[in-house]
Amino acid sequence: MKSFFLAVLFFLGGMGLSAQSLDKAKDLLKAKKYMDAKAEIDKLLEVEKHQKNAEAWYYKCKIYAAIADDSTIKSQVPDARATSFEALKKYVSTDEQGSKEKEKQLLLLQLDRYTPINSVYTGYFNDGVGNFKATKYDAALTDFKGALSAREFMFFKGWTTAKFDTLITFYAGIAAEHAKKRDEAAYYYSQIADAKLSDETYLNIYKWLANYYSQDKNDEKDALKYVNLGKQVFPKDTTWNDIELGVYDNELELYRKNGNKDSLFSKYEQITAALPNNPVFVYNYGVELYNYAIDTSSGKKPANSDALVAKAKEKLNKSLQLKPDYSQASLLLGTIIYNEAVDIKATTKNIKGSKPDDIKKRAEIRTAALKKFDEALPYFEKVDQELGPQGRLKQEDKKTLKDAYDLMINIYDQKNQKDKSDLYTNKFNDVDKVH
Question: Which of 147, 220, 327, 363 has its CA 20 to 30 A from that of 251?
């Protein structure tokens, strides 16, 4: 009986020490002796049985938050903010058990105006801003992540109705981008874009994501997703078409690099079907078809060279229907026909006899070649009509004009029309002066 009485006295004495230690920690916190308060609360919670004392965790949260907010001592406890947050989680952990302690805890938080969680939330945010300004982007990202975690915790506990913090999500994305963590930046930016936020501040996010998925991930589907979202949210912006073209260009480049022409041409079919009114891709498709059709790097042209040339001409004509002043398309169409004339004329070398039939055949071939040259001329004349009257030209247009003149000179030399040949020779020589 006596030993039992002593045990009870001993237990009650222990409880008294716990209360005294907690009261001492509270007093030290109130006196702003934060490091002393830290030592007191840490010592208290080192004892396993005291770890069930919810109020002790509450004050550990407040003490560590105070340290994190004090610029004179925060460096002594680098993880003070994170420790404060974890202590708050411990404090409310009895919520999950549905005990009466929940009501006590909520009342304490309400009386304290939710200061502990707000301190964690705003503290992380302010630290993030400070680290960002100091160009400590990795640290800033960690801080903004902490703020977002605090916000999610508040939402989960029902202390706020808004789970999504647009501003901090945006800052987290910027910090990640500056820290060269593009995957993380995409994670945060995509949350803003997926929410279709239309503030002008976020316009470039949609463009950034389109570029990221196109260039970094070779993911045409998601790249075009953000192009289309951007068009939807910011319809007045005029750059979406250029960005979309960039996405498709990048996709085509991947197919070019793999060397499989069938895959490349299949991709062109897909893109030109998706953009039926875009002359650029139809023109580029024609260029790719023709370059492959005349490629002799393997020792000879492809077996279906003639069919490829015919299809190239079809695509180039289509690009001119969509854009009648497309000078590059006119030049290439004229060049293809010009090369056909040269090929025809070259066959005279196979007829070396001097018999009347041989002479006749050579004359017929030359006539057929001249007919082809005449067929090519209107395309070069069109280039002259479109670019010749203009003033200063882009380098690409200047080259197009000079190439057209050069081929016209050759044609008129073949036709023995010196006046015309001289006319275009002078124009050729004047291009750099005039344009």
Answer: 327
Phi-psi sector, 251: left (phi>0), alpha (psi -120 to 50), beta: alpha
How big is the CA angle at 417 (ends 416 and 418), to the nearest 5 degrees?
100
C-alpha separations of 241 from 9, 19, 237, 417 in Å: 82, 69, 10, 46
Within 198-352, where are the H helices? 203-211, 220-233, 240-258, 261-274, 279-293, 305-322, 327-346
Name the DSSP class of 76. Answer: G
**R_g over Cα of the chain:** 39
Domain ranges of the chain: 325-435
Q: What is the mean pLDDT of the segment spanning 78-94?
A: 84
Q: How far apart are CA 75 and CA 62, in angstroms?
A: 17
3-state secondary structure of 298: coil
Residue type, 140: A
Tokens of 112: 């304290």
C-alpha dihedral (284, 286, 292, 296), degrees to nearest 10: -110
Locate 252 and state its tokens. 């085509």
pTM: predicted TM-score of the whole model, two decimal places: 0.69
* Window from 62-71, 85-94, 221-230 with minimum mean pLDDT: 85-94
Distance from C-alpha of 84 to C-alpha of 127, rounded to nearest angstrom: 14
Give the pLDDT score at 69.
Answer: 87
Report in angstroms the alpha-carbon separations of 119 from 82, 85, 152, 356, 427.
Answer: 11, 9, 15, 105, 77
First to last CA, the chain: 114
